[in-house]
Specification:
With 137 residues, this protein is an alpha/beta fold. Helix content is 27%, strand content 31%. Strands 3-2-1-4-7 form a 5-stranded mixed sheet, with helices on both faces. The two termini are 19 Å apart.
């Protein structure tokens, strides 16, 4: 089973966060795609310098932007990881996800996600937005 992962990051004026987010994905994701909502800062330039493919699409809502990424951005990976620009992977979360995807036949995953809140790590359980592209048309 192919466990390649494409990250989709939705952005609008995220220059402050985009580099850290993309850096955290580089050893985990085979593709990093930024769907930008016409930023007026240097978000797109920073993302491109980090190796991300940047697409620009006017903002309507989260679902429309994410679907634009899924259907219009020529993703070659089997899995999509939806991550916000102000989020980043810590520790071995990315490696753990790749191992899990390699071992299961799942269509989505539930895992712990660590957030930084006022300097403290907060671990929450949520359905991580990672979906299989098998059957998407």
């Amino acid at each position: 089973m192919n466990n390649s992962i494409a990250a989709i990051i939705l952005t609008k004026n995220e220059a402050k966060h985009i580099v850290r987010c993309i850096e955290s994905l580089q050893d985990v994701c085979d593709e990093v795609i930024v769907v930008d909502s016409l930023s007026t800062d240097n978000t797109c330039e920073l993302a491109e310098r980090m190796g991300a493919r940047v697409y620009k699409n006017p903002w309507k809502n989260y679902a429309t932007q994410f679907n634009y990424g899924v259907y219009e951005c020529d993703i070659q990976s089997e899995w999509i990881w939806r991550i916000d620009a102000d989020e980043f992977l810590e520790g071995n979360l990315g490696d753990s996800m790749k191992r899990t995807l390699a071992q299961c036949g799942c269509k989505w995953c539930l895992c712990a996600q660590t957030y930084r809140l006022h300097g403290a790590s907060v671990i929450t359980w949520r359905m991580v937005s990672i979906i299989s592209l098998k059957g998407v048309s």
